[in-house]
Amino acid sequence: MDPPPPPPPPAVSSSILQFLENKTILVTGGAGFLAKIFVEKILRSQSKVKKLYLLIREVDNKSATQRLQNEVIGKELFKVLKQKMGAKFSPFVEEKVRVVAGDITCEDLAIKDPCLKQEIRRDIDVIVNFAATTNFDERYDVALWLNTFGGRNVMEFANKCLKIKVVIQVSTAYVSGERVGLIREDPYRLGDTLNAVAGLDVQAEKRLVEQKLNDLRNTGASDDSIKWAMKELGMERARKFGWPNVYVFTKAMGEMMMLDLKKDLIPLVIIRPTIVTSTFKEPFPGWVEGIRTIDSLVVGYGKGRLRCFLGDPTSVVDVIPADMVANVMIVAMATHANQRSAETAIYQVGSSVRNPVTLTVLHDTSHCYFTKHPWINKEGNPVIVGKVKVLGSMPSFHRYISIRYLLPLKGLELANTAFCQFFRGAHTDLSRKINYVLRLVDIYRPYLFFKGIYDDMNTHKLRVAAAESGMETNIFYFDPKVINWEDYFMDTHIPGLVRYVFK
User: Fold this and answer.
1) Beta bridge pairs of residue 276
2) Most Cβ neighbours (<10 Å): which of 18, 20, 187, 350?
3) For 246-259, what is the HEC assignment?
4) Stretches in the chain below the pLDDT threshold 50
5) Alpha carbon 394 to chain centroid distance?
6) pLDDT in tens, 272-298
7) 358 close to 315: Cβ distance less than 8 angstroms
8) Predicted TM-score (pTM) of this structure
9) CA distance 100 to 86
10) How many angstroms separate the CA atoms of 42 and 282, rounded?
């Protein structure tokens, strides 16, 4: 029998803004997409926050400070705060934000300065762990150190902090794997797997990786060979235990380790967003950075490179704007601070239950947008888009690939033999491209035909409790029901991609 869901969060009398006042927060992965939005929101909404320590993965503070300026404060994301504060902006940031060179894959987060380490442990009220690799095709060693043992190191560091009130772990809803139907906000414990295969031991996985790396280096393997061997090992281990890729596998194990290390005196909150997209409203609509899962389709289509679309057009694509995810974290932080409990709060943050949208809507709005506003290529010519061929199943995809690519490849192979390797370059190039596409499809296939719906009952209860207790839900909004998806994609998200992502 499934365990009962945790009780709804208790009503909190004080406001979120009052909670943030005079608080000190450690943010890991401080240069990441969501972390920047979280930091900007706190600085803009509560100027009386005491201090934000931003842990950035660098060898020294000089390099970390340079990244803070270039990759965080210097971004257009902060333009509203800059306009609001005027000449006071730089002194304000200097007072409120302190960059910390560190690395969550190391003990004590690799904070070298003993005085700074002591200061953080003494003063920190909240830790928010954003640091992660989100690459579905990451090397296993990289993903395991960062997503799994990084979470352990963050929790061990929290256990040494003198007045820590809550730890927020940013995970992903897709730790669920390829499940069908309603997917609940349930925890993963050490040894849990998605396919009932026994034997998952996180420490054993670490030893396996270390042994594999030693074997490869002892045989003189090249860096490229080691990289591919680590990628293959990650995919193999993930699929052995039921996860579709190394990213969600290592994030799930990270949750397991943090739950195991959690002490009853420290509240732990796990945030599981679905596919995070551009900002819905604040600090302004449409800000985005990097290419998220579905955005690769939009970018490829707008640039005229997407000739077919693989996926079930009726599938629900669970997306949620980044500013709503940041708001959930802030509300959960204020709600669960000092809530001494053995239970861990888990919040799935998405839209598939309360306001579902299908892949068809994404395709249709992309077609409408780029028909009205065609992308101008490097030659200065508009890229004319049309309706793409929809391949609604894997068999139809394989037929399409066979006719369009594998037959020409076979022809090149025969011609290459007949003409003494004259076409070797063209054959190798086409073969490499086909293998690349097939690997990408293998990695992303679970999400192109995804049939799961993410239950967000805990998140809904959090929203209701916050409103009933008088929290500022107009400032820290996160109800996906207010979104009109056609308008959002057409007027906000796709224009944001064109402005900030298209190159």
Assistant:
1) 320
2) 350
3) HHHHHHHHHHHHHH
4) 1, 4, 7-13, 409, 411-427
5) 26
6) 999 999 999 999 999 999 887 778 888
7) yes
8) 0.90
9) 26
10) 12
Mean pLDDT value across the chain: 88
Neighbours of 287 (CB within 10 A): 25
Return the active site residues: 247, 251
Could you tell me how many helices (H) and strands (E) the chain has, helices first?
A: 20, 13
Cα distances from 68 to residues 41, 54, 71, 99, 279, in angstroms, run 16, 8, 6, 7, 21
Per DSSP, the residues of 409-451 read HHHHHHHHHHTTTTTHHHHHHHHHHHHHHHHHHHHHHHHHT--
What is the radius of gyration, based on Cα positions, of the chain? 24
Q: How far apart are CA 195 and CA 211, in angstroms?
A: 26
Distance, CA of 208 to chain centre = 26
- Three-state DSSP at 172 gives coil
CA distance 454 to 185: 8
CB 26 within 8 A of CB 99: no
Q: Which two tokens stand for residue 84?
A: 């609001």
* Contact residues for 170 (Cβ-Cβ < 8 A; gap 6+): 34, 128, 129, 130, 132, 271, 273, 329
CB neighbour list of residue 158: distance below 8 Å, 6 or more residues apart: 127, 164, 167, 266
